[in-house]
Amino acid sequence: MAVGGRARSVDVSICDTHGPDEALRSIHAELSAQKKLRKVKPRAPESFAVETYFHFVVTEDTASYYTPEVRNALATAQVYSSPFSLHLPSDPLPHNTDPCPQYNTLSGAYAPVGIRFNLQPPTFNINTSWATNADETSMKTALRKGTYSSLNIYFQSNLSTPGTYTDPTSFLLGYCELPTQLTRTTCSSQGACTTRTERPRDYPTDGCNVLLASMPGGGMQMYDQGKTAVHEVGHWFGLLHTFQDNSCERASAGDYIDDTAQEMTATDGCPVGKDSCPGSVGVDPIANFMDYSNDAWYIWLNLGKEANEWMGK
């Protein structure tokens, strides 16, 4: 998709999160079945906090945009910035009532289901291979903090898809790791092997990668209200795309949430009344954060009544 940024036209890919593995599908299916058998009773969301870390990663070429004042503001979560448009809030603290737009956008989206984000001190990093995502493993191994229950979001100035790392006009809005239950196989000298499941205290590749320009006021036209992070964090919690499996078949589980209307295709823009599955109940959920609409149309998350049974790491 080509969009006009404030400074130039760029090619933007929306989300590169991979589909669920069989283990995650099985969990979704089991919860859906329990709901239908009334084994899971609807209840009010229980509040819980997620330890959260923001990591800002920029290229050497864009580092000059990040003056000491901007870096300090980022480190104290008081500014939104991007390689296109960098600016401090017009009304400086303490009078500014919205010191961290990205954090507030994220918190506001998940507050209705009782999820809070306990933001820790952010980090600021200058590393071109990290900022373009050419060396993701090295970046996350070096920067990731907390345990597997901790959310790490990497806001990268030049987040790109494989093969476009050196193209300054090609960007990826984001992607995130879906929940994973790791296994380890050990074998004795006699050749007998056993496999056990473990939840490591530190899983380096876990976390969300988000284009820095998608932060509120970041300058990525149509995608600069901070809602890319909301979408990707939904994946971190295990939510799937509303158009999962791209099918209108009644047998298709879609996103495994019963009250999400069936959707065949991802949404592009804000097509009011879009109905890619006219034979199913309801029109496409274009206002759902887990679709691909523009930021202006994202309003709600559909977690389903069973979501709070398992939305923990």
Short description:
By secondary structure, the chain is α/β, with parallel strands linked by helices. It has helices spanning 22-36, 68-75, 101-110, 128-131, 136-143, 227-236; strands at residues 2-4, 9-15, 48-58, 115-119, 123-126, 151-156, 170-176, 182-187, 193-198, 208-211.
Could you explain the architecture of this structure?
The structure is a single chain. The two termini are 33 Å apart. The longest helix is centred in the N-terminal third of the chain and has 15 residues. This protein is an alpha/beta fold. The protein has 6 helices and 10 strands, in the order ββαβααββααβββββα. The relative contact order is 0.18. Strands 1, 2, 3, 4, 5, 6, 7 and 10 form an 8-stranded mixed β-sheet that branches. Strands 8-9 form a two-stranded antiparallel ribbon. A hairpin with a 4-residue loop joins strand 1 and strand 2. Helices cover 18% and strands 19% of the residues.
Helicity, as a percent range: 10-25%
Low-confidence stretches: 1-9, 78-99, 304-313
Question: What is the CA-CA span between the terminal residues?
Answer: 33 Å
The value of Rg in angstroms is: 20 Å
Structural class: alpha/beta
Q: Biggest β-sheet: count, sense, barrel? A: 8 strands, mixed
Mean pLDDT: 75
Helices and strands, in order, run as EEHEHHEEHHEEEEEH
How many helices? The count is 6
